[in-house]
UniProtKB/TrEMBL annotation, chain A:
This is Phosphate transport system permease protein PstA. One of its GO terms (cellular component) is plasma membrane. PROSITE patterns: ABC_TM1. SUPFAM superfamilies: MetI-like.
TrEMBL record, chain B:
It comes from the Bacteria. NCBIfam families: 3a0107s01c2 (TIGR00972). It comes from Sphingosinicella soli. Keywords: ATP-binding, Nucleotide-binding, Phosphate transport, Transport. One of its GO terms (biological process) is phosphate ion transmembrane transport. PANTHER family: ABC TRANSPORTER I FAMILY MEMBER 17. InterPro entries: AAA+_ATPase, ABC_transporter-like_ATP-bd, ABC_transporter-like_CS, P-loop_NTPase, PstB-like. This is Phosphate transport system ATP-binding protein. One of its GO terms (molecular function) is ATP binding. Residues 21-263 form the ABC transporter domain.
């Protein structure tokens, strides 16, 4: 064809309009992207801000100063009983509750309220700890800081709206007046809530702790990791390096991908049917929780492992085979070390998902009300997300801050795990 | 030209020796597709044999048959007979790991392990148990690097990563790695195609130095390279071995029209 093309006029108005439209399009797109980012950021900020502002008081507690008489007769023990062989037993049977009640009642009467309005049900535990550390206290009268009741705790943290009519708030006018008098006498203070960080669940918010659930989570995840990691990695190695490519292995691959997408509650039902009903394992136990979560996490690790091994360049395999390495040497000397960062990242992401999982654990009884920190793999336990679920359901006002504080603990765990994943990835990553 | 004459006389004597590897009627299929239609070649121990031909002619496929690297390709199937010193390398009693130790390979793209220079060279001897002491291993590594012409450049940084070297150095490191297992045959699959001219010249020099100690088979796209480094040349086209003979003969007086066309640049 010989018809010559007309010379393009790059400066013509049509062209310039086209250029302007192109720039405008670019700007609009960038603006939309930025807006999306800002929106997502503000949601995250709002979420974390709410959790933090609600939750930080959960790590604090209000204490009241009481004058306590460690009367040996009232306690029913003396120094020699504590220092003797059965000291621990003597401490546990001693009537610290009576001593506490006497001191609290004396103080409460002077303020015009009941003893239980001032001090926590568990305040006597503080007395027992004090005597355990210093048996000389018996027979003396000293000022002791003990945890306040839940209502006083709210007052101490300023969480009570005083201008609301009395009928509509949890704290009575008499209690507010009593609290203000104590405050004026400098007999209340706010300190770190060691109970929250070291104890397990309780019906009273001021006595409830997160450590039980945290330890339950740790034990459960330990079981999950110990099962999932070796089995998942070996499966991935076999499927990727050894298995023939045929209909059967295709079927296995599809099944694994499907399993990774199965809703977690189904795994809970499976755990209930298999581990509890068939094998008769104990209810609410970390070992069963770990096994159930392992079923859920296994496909994630297998898939991550296969992807990581697939991304190892074939030239490295060729090089190893070329100097006469056997298949197993190729895998363990070359492929696995290079795939390790990817495998570890996938594993930790799977573990993080397991850490945040609630539904399957409800099915196997880990929603039980457990007041002891779990001691082993078969003792009843609960886990962090289930604890959050349980506390969010509580009526008492004091559990609001506990719920948010528990969420903060869970988020810290998750951040630590993700940090570990990034650290391991950077440490083992090699370039070729 | 004098060089070429000298090589030609050397060839005439060398071709008399018994072949190191013999291939008879080798056919390779990738699934349904046939990649090689009956190739028969002898590889001689103290010569460099070059395989030339246009892309997709089967020369690399054939090379990979010689140490059974095609085994790793799921769909590949091989017929025919390849012998190493009279033993069929595809026989059931042939251990493929030992075969690959005896018939080493250097690849198109330099592929050092992402480990230290020392570890790269020491890996082969280590897995085959070729040294019993650290001192022996050190000697093997040094010797191999010396033979690969890399020792002087890397002797002060053996613990540096092999991947930190330049492309040409990496390829010589791969050659050192192949030499370290003391193979009888070294297969080179377009070893210079990813390298610049200076690095290429060094590798060619090295191939010349290694001749005599190892049987070398080199696949190349570059006809000048084949002419420079080899004594025997095989021309492949469309899965068929068109012509195989002394390099000087192939380049100056080819018997087949297709060889002539390829060498003169009519296709390729």
């Amino acid at each position: 064809m010989s018809s010559a093309r007309i010379q393009t006029d790059w400066a013509s108005p049509v062209m310039q309009a086209r250029v302007r439209r192109r720039y405008a399009k670019e700007r609009r797109f960038r603006f939309l992207g930025l807006a999306a980012l800002a929106l997502a950021g503000s949601f995250l900020f709002f979420l974390l801000g709410t959790i933090f502002s609600d939750g930080y008081t959960g790590f604090l507690r209000t204490e009241v100063k009481l004058s306590v008489e460690y009367d040996a007769f009232e306690l029913g023990i003396d120094r020699s009983a504590i220092e003797g062989a059965g000291g621990e037993n003597a401490l546990n049977t001693a009537n610290f509750q009576g001593v506490m009640m006497a001191a609290a009642t004396a103080r409460a009467q002077s303020l015009g309220v009941a003893a239980k309005d001032i001090v926590s049900d568990g305040a006597w535990l503080a007395l027992r700890e004090a005597v355990r550390e210093n048996p000389d206290l018996i027979g003396s009268r000293v000022d002791v800081w003990v945890p306040t009741s839940g209502d006083f705790d709210l007052l101490g943290k300023g969480l009570v709206e005083r201008d609301v009519p009395e009928a509509n708030r949890p704290v009575s006018d008499a209690e507010i007046a009593a609290f203000d008098r104590l405050k004026a006498e400098d007999a209340v203070r706010t300190t770190l809530n060691t109970t929250f960080l070291s104890m397990a669940d309780s019906t009273s918010p001021e006595l409830a702790g997160i450590w039980g659930a945290a330890k339950g989570s740790l034990l459960t995840l330990a079981v999950t990791l110990l099962l999932c990691f070796p089995i998942g990695v070996m499966t991935a190695i076999y499927l990727e390096e050894y298995a023939p490519k045929n209909r059967f292995t295709d079927l296995i691959e599809v099944s694994i991908n499907n399993l990774a997408a199965v809703p977690s509650i189904i795994f809970g039902l499976l755990g209930l049917a298999v581990f509890l009903n068939f094998f008769g394992m104990p209810r609410s136990a970390p070992i069963v929780g770990g096994l159930t979560l392992a079923l859920m996490t296994l496909p994630v690790i297998v898939i991550a492992g296969r992807i990581a091994m697939k991304s190892v360049p074939p030239s490295i395999r060729d090089a190893a085979l070329g100097v006469g390495a056997s298949q197993i040497q190729v895998v363990f000397h070359h492929v696995l070390p290079l795939a390790l960062p990817g495998i570890l990242t996938g594993t930790i992401i799977g573990m993080a998902r397991a850490l945040g999982e609630t539904a399957p654990l409800l099915m196997i009884g880990m929603r039980a009300f457990v007041t002891d920190v779990p001691g082993g793999l078969t003792t009843p336990a609960t886990v962090l997300p289930v604890q959050i679920f349980l506390w969010s359901d509580e009526v008492a006002r004091g559990f609001v801050e506990k719920t948010s504080a528990a969420i903060m603990v869970l988020l810290v765990f998750l951040m630590l795990m993700n940090g570990l994943a990034i650290y391991l990835r950077n440490k083992f990553e090699k370039r070729w | 030209m004098n060089d070429m004459m000298a090589t030609m006389t050397a060839n005439a004597e060398a071709t008399m020796s018994a072949p190191k590897m013999t291939a008879r009627d080798v056919k390779v299929f990738y699934g349904e597709k046939q990649a090689l239609n009956g190739v028969s070649i002898d590889v001689h121990s103290d010569l460099v044999t070059a395989f030339i031909g246009p892309s997709g002619c089967g020369k690399s496929t054939f090379l990979r048959c010689l140490n059974r690297m095609n085994d790793t390709i799921e769909t590949a199937r091989m017929e025919g007979n390849i012998e190493l010193e009279g033993h069929n390398i595809y026989a059931p009693d042939m251990d493929v790991v030992q075969l690959r130790a005896r018939v080493g390979m250097v690849f198109q793209k330099p592929n050092p392990f992402p480990k230290s220079i020392f570890e790269n060279v020491a890996y082969g001897p280590r897995i085959h148990g070729l040294s019993s002491t650290k001192a022996e291993l050190d000697t093997i590594v040094e010797q191999s690097l010396v033979r690969a012409g890399l020792w002087n450049e890397v002797k002060d940084r053996l613990q540096d990563s092999g991947t930190a070297l330049s492309g040409g150095q990496q390829q010589r490191l791969c050659i050192a790695r192949a030499i370290a297992v003391d193979p009888e045959v070294i297969l080179m699959d377009e070893p210079c195609s990813a390298l610049d001219p200076i690095a290429t010249a060094k590798i060619e020099e090295l191939i010349d130095d290694l001749r005599g100690r190892y049987a070398i088979v080199i696949v190349t796209h570059n006809m000048q390279q084949a002419a420079r480094v080899s004594q025997r040349t095989a021309f492949f086209h469309l899965g068929t071995l068109v012509e195989y003979g002394d390099t000087a003969e192939i380049f100056t007086n080819p018997r087949e029209q297709r060889t002539k066309d390829y060498i003169t640049g009519r296709f390729g």
